[in-house]
Amino acid sequence: MNKRRVTVAAAVLILSAAIIIIETYLWNSRKYYLTSVVIILLAMLPFFVRFERRRPQVREIVLLAVMTAFAVAGRAAFYWAPQFKPVCAIVILTAAAFNSEAGFMVGAASGIISNIFFGQGPWTPWQMLGFGLVGFIGGLLFYNREVKTAPIVAYGFFSVLVIYGILLDTASLLMYSQSVTWKALLSVYASGFSFNLIHALGTAVFLLLLKKPVLSKLGRIKTKYGMMD
Questions:
Q1: Is the pLDDT assigned to residue 125 strictly greater than 90?
Q2: Would you tell me how many other CB atoms lie within 10 Å of the CB of residue 208?
Q3: d(CA 30, CA 20)
Q4: Which letter does DSSP use for residue 79 in this model?
Q5: Residue 164 in 3-state DSSP?
Q6: How far apart are CA 91 and CA 125, in angstroms?
Q7: Range of weakest confidence among 113-122, 152-161, 210-219
Q8: Which are the contacts of 109, defined by CB distance < 8 A and separation ≥ 6?
Q9: Do the Cβ atoms of 93 and 208 come closer than 8 Å?
Q10: How far is the C-alpha of 138 from the C-alpha of 155, rounded, in Å?
Q11: At how many degrees (to 10) do helices 58-77 and 87-97 cross?
């Protein structure tokens, strides 16, 4: 990370801490959800700002839009199978083919656009951040490296089970619980484990099916047009 990125990360952490202090000591009632959403938006802001400042080519924006549409269509196509969705697999493959930024952007955009069909709500920013983080970390691990099947499938499984699953379970606690306690937290995690496991297994299955054809075609596009370099 360069100096600018470290400065931005530090600023996000300081602002997040300030918001938590305000929420804890100045507001009459603890607004856990509002505080969490503001922190999530702060965490996502640097990615969107950096993407805009880089002034990506139109072909890059079109390709990211296509991958986002692919993820949204995949989620809609499997509406009948709760939690068994290809969104995270497509986001991970996008990040592996291009970079962490592309993975985050496609993940975050997929979350908000797909909820036009599935329903917007207080969970939307959490899903955007969850999908985005899965893609961002996937880019750190697999971009500019030989992508082997076993590691990327394992990452897809555990990233959805741990990163996305725990994040959304935490969101559920903050949205629907009257108080935040360790007992309530463990109860929410336990009740959500089976759903997260199905989601993680679905991601692993879709990575097995999509890895070769998707990475092959994205690689050809990247080489032909010199994109995302």
A1: no
A2: 15
A3: 10
A4: T
A5: helix
A6: 17
A7: 113-122
A8: 64, 68, 128
A9: no
A10: 8
A11: 160
Q: Which residues contact 123 (CB under 8 A, 6 or more apart)?
A: 168, 171, 172, 175
Structure tokens at 43: 């965490």
> H helices of the chain, where?
3-25, 32-53, 58-77, 87-97, 100-118, 124-142, 149-158, 165-176, 182-225
Q: Are 205 and 216 in contact (CB under 8 A)?
A: no
Q: Which residue has the higher pLDDT, 146 or 22?
A: 146
> Would you state the pLDDT for residue 220?
87
| Nearest CA-CA partner of 137 in 170, 161, 163, 112 | 163
* Terminal-to-terminal C-alpha distance of the chain: 17
Q: How far is Cα 156 from Cα 205, in angstroms, rounded to an integer?
A: 9
The reported pTM is: 0.82
Out of 37-46, 193-202, 216-225, pick the least confident: 37-46
What 15-18 contacts at long range (C-beta under 8 Å, 24+ apart), as own/partner pairs, is 15/42, 16/42, 16/43
The closest of 36, 25, 99 to 67, measured between CA atoms, is 99
Q: Which two tokens stand for residue 28?
A: 């009459």
Q: Which of the 8 DSSP states describes residue 144? A: T
Token digits for 19? 């918001």
Residue-level length of the chain: 229
Question: 56 is written with which tokens?
Answer: 């990506």
CA distance 124 to 214: 27
56 in Cβ contact with 102 (< 8 Å):
no
